Structures are given as structure tokens and as C-alpha cells.
Amino acid sequence: MHLAYKVKMSFPALLFIFSFFVSFSHAAVQDFCVADYTAPEGPAGYSCKKPEKVTVDDFVFSGLGVAGNTSNIIKAAVTTAFSSDLPGVNGLGVSLGRADLAPGGVVPFHTHPGGSEIAYVAKGTLCAGFVSSANKVYLKTLKQGDTMVFPQGLLHFQINSGKTPALFFVAFSSASPGLQLLDYVLFKNDLPTEIVSEASFLDPDVIKKLKGVLGGTG
Known about the structure:
By secondary structure, the chain is an alpha+beta fold. It folds into 3 domains: 1-30; 59-178, Sandwich (Jelly Rolls), CATH 2.60.120; 185-214, no CATH class. Helices cover 24% and strands 28% of the residues. The chain is built from 4 helices and 12 strands; from the N terminus they run H-E-E-E-E-E-E-E-E-E-E-E-E-H-H-H. It has a 5-stranded antiparallel sheet, with no helix packed on it. Strands 8-7-10-5-12 form a 5-stranded antiparallel sheet. The relative contact order is 0.13. It is found in: Secreted, Extracellular space, Apoplast. Oxalate binds at residues 112, 117. Belongs to the germin family. Keywords: Apoplast, Disulfide bond, Glycoprotein, Manganese, Metal-binding, Receptor, Secreted, Signal. This is Germin-like protein.
């Protein structure tokens, strides 16, 4: 009984020491994994560039300082600093983005399957929200200086609800959070209109019209 008690009490300490050395060992082996765009991308991300080929430019990205072109159907532009744009964030579990919205502009319902998002409004006014898996809506009007979190995988959107251009920056809990726009999923594809109609309960004429706008076929 006495020996079993001692083992039970010491196991958490042993586990802590083991995990400490595992994490320390990993950190000592490799400080970073800069994306090697010449190698295939796998489920875990890009392969690592050889350390001798890494430069400081692999960790620097200037794209978020440039306003995007909002002359499009959604009157919005999104600029990303994912691992596909900024090789230095590969494997680090972080990334950034910028969204410019003209008056009336919208980032339509979309999801990020690989990471949660936190948005900071730098200019303008946004109507933003997300829908939980229980179909509860979380909706808020955001003004300059406000921040809102959008949990991983949940459908969410941002609309410029003001009369002036809006700008917000986003951070993600993944170097490659992914992006899937609901409208593109439904209408920018080659699924027959009849199938989309049956699966979505939408009118076939509406589906054909939207497929024509977004480039879908069928």
C-alpha cells in the first residue's frame, strides 16, 4: 500500500518532467520550419527549407500594408499572410490577414476549418456575427477599436454597415487556417442544379442565376 501510494503521488511529477524534456528537446532540435515552396505540401504543412537557405526575408511580409482592390461583386478584398504567403509562419500555429470593405461590402458566410479567428476593426463600422453548431446567432455591430472572436470551423461573416470604407485585421490560430466561402460551395461548382436544389431547398432558377454569376456550371 505504501509503495503504491508513493508511485501514484510521483507519477504527475514524472509526467511533467518527461513532457518538459520532450518539449525542450524538440525546441533544441529545430527553431522553426520555414516553408519550402519547391517541395510538396502535406497534411502537416509545407516541408522545411534547409536552414542554410533561410534568410530574414522568409520572416517578413509587406502585403498587409497595402489596401486591397474592392472593385468586385462583394465590394471587398482579403489579403492573407498564411504559410502560403509568409514562409516563416509555417509550423508556428499563427497567421494574419487584412480585409478591406467598400461601403456595402461583405465578406460572405465562410469558415476556416483549420483555425479560430480574432478580428480587430482598424477603421469603419462592421456588422459581424457567427452561428454556433446549435444554430444560435452571435451578432454584433463593431466600431473602430473593437475586437471579435470567431471560433474555429463556424460559419461567420462581416458586412460594412457604415457609409465609409472599413478595414479590419485578423489573426488566426493556425499558419494555414483555410477558407471556404458558402456561396462558392453552393454555386461555384459543377454539381447539377437539380442536386443542389434538392440538397439546399433552393429554387432551381435562383441556383442557375447564382451559378452564372459565380462561374458554376450544371
